[in-house]
């Protein structure tokens, strides 16, 4: 007896040193759920490492928490063999913080309602898929969300105003869908962090809510929609906005009264119905890298100074009666 113990102990120690990963980490419930997801997706090749005989913390496309060993991340990128709807079992990974399905062009159906159960979710990125239906209201229950990207899908319906109840959002990407209706007025009421708004390439209509003027957004991309009316509330000299792209809408306001946010680096207003002239104040912004006010109804002389003369004539052409460098001189 004594002998065998002497013999066994160093052996155990040695094997622990040689195979530190041999300890089973995977939570059996998480493993069961992942295998169900694999089955629902029809056993795709990309998930072939999801072998029931191995530790699920070592499988591809997932990550376990270092201490709890619960699945915290599920990321599947670029695969057209994965088809069908998002399986409801994704809602049964209760510690999931990151869920990414990107460039899975054969994923169809709505945004899976069971995602509402993922209260720890911080990062939800479902893009370049064929998911359809609406942007669900339940997203507003996921209070820890910092990043929401549902771009490049086939989503319809309007933008839920309840998204403004999310206190930690850094960005909302709903661009390149088929969303209709107007931008919710509640988007001027974000309480915690103020998210970058990417709503371009949809069919949004109506006016930009005046409430948006209350917040100092970093990035606003509303381009290629059917927005009309005023957009001057998005500007102001005491804002620190970095990018404003309102190109290809039907916006109609007087640019003369607009104060450019200090440090604005990117301003695209092309293809709207903007009137007035370019304010002299625009010469004060030396950080401007991109500027395009073409295809509007602007008039008057382009103020001389700052970066304004460094832009191509195509930044200014197709206006009512804009003149001066880089366009031809005013008569
Ligand atoms: C994926 O979709 C394409 C185009 O719709 C189709 O040709 C292909 O058969 C689909 N693949 C699978 C695995 O469903
Ligand atoms: C949300 O995040 C906070 C701060 O990181 C954390 O303490 C809390 O447990 C998270 N809530 C959930 C449901 O995961
Ligand atoms: C979007 O869905 C429609 C049917 O509702 C379909 O005809 C179309 O091909 C889809 N487009 C994309 C880009 O997935
Ligand atoms: C998915 O979307 C692509 C375009 O991104 C389209 O060509 C394809 O037909 C769609 N597939 C299905 C199954 O809807
Ligand atoms: C910015 O200016 C507007 C009026 O131009 C004013 O109402 C608002 O309080 C100012 N905001 C800050 C943060 O100074
Ligand atoms: C400005 O926008 C117009 C219209 O899209 C385009 O033709 C032109 O090339 C753009 N110019 C610059 C410098 O971006």
From TrEMBL:
Residues 1-23 form the signal peptide. Residues 27-65 form the Leucine-rich repeat-containing N-terminal plant-type domain. This is Leucine-rich repeat-containing N-terminal plant-type domain-containing protein. It is found in: Cell envelope. The keyword Signal applies. Keywords: Leucine-rich repeat, Repeat, Signal. Belongs to the polygalacturonase-inhibiting protein family. PANTHER family: POLYGALACTURONASE INHIBITOR 1 (PTHR48059), POLYGALACTURONASE INHIBITOR 1-RELATED (PTHR48059:SF4). It comes from Rubroshorea leprosula. The keyword Repeat applies.
């Amino acid at each position: 007896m004594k002998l065998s113990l002497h013999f066994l102990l160093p052996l155990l120690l040695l094997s622990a040193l040689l195979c530190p990963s041999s300890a089973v980490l995977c939570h059996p419930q998480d493993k069961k759920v992942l295998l169900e997801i694999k089955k629902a997706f029809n056993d795709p090749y990309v998930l072939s490492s999801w072998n029931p005989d191995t530790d699920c913390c070592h499988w591809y496309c997932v990550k376990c928490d270092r201490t709890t060993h619960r699945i915290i991340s599920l990321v599947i990128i670029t695969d057209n063999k994965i088809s069908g709807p998002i399986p409801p079992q994704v809602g049964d990974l209760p510690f999931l913080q990151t869920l990414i399905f990107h460039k899975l062009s054969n994923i169809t159906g709505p945004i899976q309602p069971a995602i509402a159960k993922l209260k720890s979710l911080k990062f939800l990125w479902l893009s370049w898929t064929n998911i359809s239906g609406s942007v669900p209201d339940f997203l507003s229950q996921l209070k820890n969300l910092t990043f929401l990207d549902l771009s490049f899908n086939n989503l319809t319906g309007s933008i839920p105003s309840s998204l403004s109840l999310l206190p930690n959002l850094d960005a909302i990407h709903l661009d390149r869908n088929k969303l209709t209706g107007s931008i919710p007025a509640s988007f001027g009421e974000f309480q915690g962090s103020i998210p970058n708004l990417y709503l371009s390439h949809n069919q949004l209509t109506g006016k930009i809510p005046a409430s948006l003027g209350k917040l100092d957004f970093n990035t606003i991309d509303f381009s290629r929609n059917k927005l009309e009316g005023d957009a001057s509330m998005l500007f102001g000299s005491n804002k620190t906005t970095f990018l404003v792209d309102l190109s290809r809408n039907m916006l109609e306001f007087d640019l003369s009264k607009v104060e450019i946010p200090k440090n604005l680096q990117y301003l695209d207003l092309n293809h709207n119905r903007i009137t007035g002239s370019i304010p002299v104040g625009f010469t004060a912004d030396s950080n401007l890298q991109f500027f395009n006010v073409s295809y509007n109804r602007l008039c008057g002389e382009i103020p001389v100074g700052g970066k304004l003369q460094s832009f191509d004539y195509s930044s200014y052409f197709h206006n009512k009666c804009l003149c001066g460098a880089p366009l031809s001189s005013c008569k």
